[in-house]
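assembly run, all chains below
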Amino acid sequence: MEAIDRQLDRARRGEPEALSALYRQLLPGVFGYIAARVPDRATAEDLTSDVFLQMVESISRLRANDEASVAAWILQIARVTVAGYYRKREHQPAFVSLEPRGWEEEESGASRVISDSNPNLDPVRSAEARDEWDTVVKAINTLTEEQRQVLVGRLILGYDVATVARMLGKKANAVKALQFRALQRLQRVLGKQRSPEQAYAFHRYRKEDTL
Amino acid sequence: MKPLPERLNERLEQHNARSSYGEGVPDWLLSPVHAPSQDPEADELVALALRLQSAPPLQVDPDYAWQLEQRILTRNAALHLEQPVRGWSFPRLLRAHPVFRVALSLCLLLLLLGTGVLVAAAQMTNPDSPLYVVKHWEQQVQVSLAHSPENQAHLDLQFAQDRLKTLVTLADAAHVQAYSEALVELDQRISAAARVIDALPAGAEHDRVESQLATLQADARHTLRGLLPQLALPERLLTTDELGRLGDTVPHLVSAEIILPAHPNGQAVISIAGEDIQPGAQLLVDSRLMDVRGSLQNGWYVFVANWVGNQHPQRLGILNPDGTAAQTTTITLNSSDDHGNSNHGGNGNSKGKP
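ok done. output:
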């Protein structure tokens, strides 16, 4: 496998293969980070596109030479992009769309989960699943930025503690503590908002998926 | 027992290790209510983490991923079209390789330091040093960059003063060539200053700079006169010449006449016409000092010297008691017969030369 510094050099020079490789490497983390923060898939995909287009335009100025620094850089772009999205929403009047909502109109993502879990496309179940995910997004939005980045680095990008520590400029123990507090808080927030049964519905759906 | 964050992390690491070996997630982990583990608190959090990790809303749709990749590559291509092919560009090289940036910074620093040290060292050099070229160049640049004639005159005077100081250090037999060069430069600087001052409009500034020039010239006369006893004859002649240009009273020879003896080993009579030849002046024949003293007769300074052979001198001159010297090549040759009568045989009528 090509060393990250050489791959970055080539990406900085605009070589398509290197850019593609970098994109494929970072896409799950960026999309996961954004999708965990916005209410629907369409918005998550739009914002993810914005992030990667910005990456292409500014990568020639990137100084990072290791994977952790690149991840920190792209997540910083993602953070600003999501913040911009919420800022715009504050200034826009609320409206009710006549079109189906993002996750519903997809043939993939959450709706696929629903279809997997219920081949008959039960609308009640679909709405329940959508509301469940909205709740998760709200819970994730209550985390601190560092907690969110730890979860993305550890769970979605699959980095070890040392890499996430470099990404955030923290010590390994601090990352473990952030990871613990993030999950504990999610558990608490999700638990508060639901009955005990609902609190574990999130887990139950997953279990049903596997059946 | 380890703290909960540590235990949680270990269990996540174990899960990741299992995933990397292709093992599935244990069923009990996804349902913490029924977990058989000894650490239910950690298990609940791990289950939540794994659920998040595999939550479908967080997974990328492959079609979307492919379309976005195409958009990115298209945008990248467009960007490269917008920026004409730059090929090897120095700024890009610097951006891409921090090593180049550091190396360039070091080179610039060394260059600046080196130039600074070189120029500083050159300030203390004299014409026989290789660094003198740097000093000369730096002064030339300063003069050419002078923003006004007054400033240029000041610089010329300053550099002339500098040459004068240098001359003091070179007034010995070991620095003959360097002394001559410094003397020429002193003359050039003073002449340049005088030219610039002449061109200045009348006024206070003109008078001030002119006064500085006069002071420098007086200082130079005094210094050069003090150096005369230490100099060899060729440098004395040059210095006398310079003293004359500085307005000092120095001997000036117009012509010379020599009556050679009729027989070898006779006495030659040498008559020299000129100005400011002092009583007690000694005779110079072809730049050699003859141990004879002359006397003033009818406006001519006449020497009688023992003459060996029939050689004709090319240059005749005098050395005044104050150390100034002058020579002439305008020599009229006469030879005397057995009766002491002279026969005219001049060698030209060129102007006398000190």
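Residues 23-35, 346-354 of chain B have pLDDT under 50 and may be disordered.

The first helix of chain B runs from residue 4 to 20.

not gonna interpret more than that til we talk
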